[in-house]
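*** Query protein ***
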Amino acid sequence: MELGYFAVMDAQDEMLLREQLGELRSKHRELDARLAEIELAAAHDQLTLTRLKKQKLVLKDQINRLEDRLFPDIIA
């Protein structure tokens, strides 16, 4: 049900969002680990590093959007 800006979420929707959030956080951590490995390599590939950093930022944006849906910042 839609109430202005905020939607009323049922338990199934919330569970789905929490699953998606967990998956995105896991992918974000994996990318972070890969970036650290590449940066430590003596001859790291700058193009690969840049691409991974962009992927990490996209994941972080998706995580933030899901968190905003799960935990809306309601101003009283």
User: Anything to note?
Assistant: The mean pLDDT is 86. DSSP finds two helices and two strands in the chain.
